[in-house]
Write a structure and sequence with these properties.
single chain; two-stranded antiparallel ribbon; elongated
């Protein structure tokens, strides 16, 4: 095909060809959901915890737990992706993210909130490196930076909209239950979208000879 680089590490689709594929748009929407869900929690979870009666200093340590497990998720899933496949791991991580958010919507005790934070941190941290992995697996490395930029832009858009929606719901309803349930549903929908991604009709193996 005219849009494929000939060989070596640059094998793969040109960006102009990648944007014509449903695979890219499924990922763009899925990663927008990632930004929506993750940054809604990042912005609002401490306020949510203090509203449930946790002291502000203890509520703030929830972010420490999320950050620590985020590092574990990045390292763990990043190292597994080459052996297990990025798509399967990405679906699993989105599933864990959805579970943690649905749990967070119902959690009322301190131990339960922190348990949610641990699962949430590991899930969101694991999704971060898998973004690059699944793009390389599907589209090759020819336009990897540009395609990664497209999913990065979608994450940014979701990150801008999600916290605003979550805050608005809290102002109207006086509770984070519905917005966090919404974030869980968005994460579950993202898992389904990733599941719907199929390999391209022509495989562009990294390093394949022309």
């Amino acid at each position: 095909a005219g849009g494929v680089a000939p060989s070596g590490d640059t094998a793969g689709l040109l960006f102009s060809d990648a944007v014509r594929t449903p695979q890219l748009w499924l990922l763009v929407i899925a990663f927008a959901g990632f930004g929506w869900a993750v940054h809604s929690v990042m912005v609002h979870v401490v306020v949510h915890a203090t509203g449930l009666g946790l002291p502000p200093s203890l509520a703030a340590t929830i972010m420490t737990a999320i950050g620590a497990l985020g590092v574990v998720g990045r390292i763990g899933t990043g190292s597994l992706a080459d052996r297990r496949g990025a798509k399967r791991l990405l679906i699993t991580q989105y599933g864990l993210l959805a579970l943690s958010l649905l749990w967070l919507a119902a959690a009322r005790e301190t131990w339960s909130i922190f348990a949610c934070a641990v699962v949430f941190g590991f899930a969101f941290g694991g999704i971060v490196p898998l973004n690059s992995h699944i793009i390389a697996d599907l589209f090759g490395l020819r336009a990897h930076g540009a395609v990664l930029g497209a999913t990065g832009l979608s994450i940014g858009m979701g990150s801008a909209i999600g916290p605003v929606f979550t805050g608005y719901c809290y102002d109207v309803l006086g509770s984070y239950t519905v917005p966090f349930l919404t974030c869980g549903a968005v994460s579950a929908a993202a898992a389904v979208l990733v599941w719907l991604v199929r390999p391209l009709a022509v495989e562009y193996a990294r390093g394949a000879a022309s």
